[in-house]
Amino acid sequence: MYEKFINNTRLRRFTVLALVIFILFLVKDFLTPILLTFIFTLISVRIVTFVQRFIKAPTFLLTTILYVIELVLLYLLISRYSTILIDQVVSTYDSIVHFYQHKEFQSDVITNFIADYFKNHNWQDKLESGAGIILVQLQNVGRLAVEFVVSFLLSFFFMVEKEKTVLFSRNFLSSEYAWFFQDLFYFAKVFVETFGVVVEVQLLIALVNTMITTVGLGLIGFTQLPTLAIMIFFLSLIPVAGVIFSCIPLTLIAYSTGGIQTVIYVLILIVIVHCIEAYILNPKFMSSRTKLPIFYTFVILLFSERFLGVWGLIVGIPIFNFFLEILGVKIRTKKTEQLD
Questions:
Q1: Rounded to two decimals, what is the model's pTM?
Q2: DSSP 8-class letter at 309
Q3: Are 302 and 322 in contact (CB under 8 A)?
């Protein structure tokens, strides 16, 4: 029975895939660092391979230079962006204080309204629940920062010893249970190919989002556009949600720059960019690079985002291509039909 199972390639691969899915379900809390490590490594491999076409340099040297550049850019982004954000928060606070101290401000009416509100509502429970929500969000941000750093270091260690790691991993393909690792390698190869396309598409979307948003902010009257463009680009690498994340700092800057009217302009711009990304760029770019119809791409993105969250927008297409490969479904186009 064991030999029959080994020789039945289709059943064997279905079993291995089911085992992989089960293991991933057990370690679902670690999916974020796993996916981040994979993304960082994949991007680094693509960049280093591209550079080695023109410059014959060791992988170790190019990897070190690449990661140093990334750290410098990240430091400049955090330092410059945090300074701008702090200045805008202070300016917003000063404007609120100035508004409160203005002679036309009816402080008695507002004060009485606030006093009556707190008297008639259980403000202590609401304050505690609000503080709890803020604390949970801060913990999530801290955990994500730690996962980001760990994933960045793991990808660096892999790239530094890429050849050695690959050679060591190939030993499993000739082990006593080589069939199992060969199937894992088969799935990994399919996933890397499809996932690489998704990463390339997301980079293109991030560039388009950055250009549209930067031009719109320039027309609105924003300054420090290069720093804001870097921030928008990094946030745009997060599918769909990145545009929403950029809403908070941009609205703060907009309020201190031109008041409520500028905030409304920025919100309209963010809504437009979000709609363009979610309903035009994402399905169109995905369908063009994965050779899937826009209808299928759009449906896959909707379902994967519903069941897997933001990560579903990244892994949804590779998972679908997994099943296409396993089921033996070949994507045919008009050109292939004409050749047949």
A1: 0.68
A2: G
A3: no
